[in-house]
Design brief:
The radius of gyration is 35 Å and the shape is flat. It is an all-alpha fold and 135 residues long.
Length: 135
């Protein structure tokens, strides 16, 4: 049996897709896929990738700070200080991503501790009042 009848019947049969439409659909799908693959990354994602790349690479003498340390006698892998017993690795970077402001987390923590202490004191007073009223 031949498939020739399909090409001739495409005009008459509404369920059959012609080659022209199928090629156009494949082309659109390929175009959409390429657009998704090449889509520009959001700014935060690019920033984090750039930061991670910078933190992964060690400093060299082209860095002004590292050049100054070398002039003062620092060697790679040594610790800081007169005896070389100080910090050997840089201070870790902590990125603040939310909009709360510096110190807000500590303030919220203190406020929660005060609330808990107040609840605890109130519950003690209530239990003390209950025992006194029963007498």
């Amino acid at each position: 049996m031949s498939d020739q009848f399909l090409f001739g019947a495409a005009d008459n049969a509404p369920g059959l897709v012609t080659d022209k439409i199928a090629r156009k659909y494949k082309k659109e799908m390929k175009h959409n896929e390429l657009n998704q693959r090449n889509k520009i990354k959001p700014m935060r994602l690019r920033e984090t990738e750039h930061r991670e790349q910078g933190l992964a690479s060690a400093l060299d003498s082209s860095n002004k700070g590292f050049a100054m340390l070398q002039k003062m006698g620092f060697k790679h892998g040594m610790g800081l200080g007169k005896d070389g017993t100080g910090r050997a690795e840089p201070i870790p970077l902590a990125v603040k991503a939310d909009r709360g402001g510096l110190g807000r987390d500590m303030l919220l923590k203190r406020q929660m501790e005060v609330k808990e202490a107040m609840k605890h004191e109130n519950s003690k007073e209530k239990s003390k009042n209950r025992t006194e009223s029963k007498r």
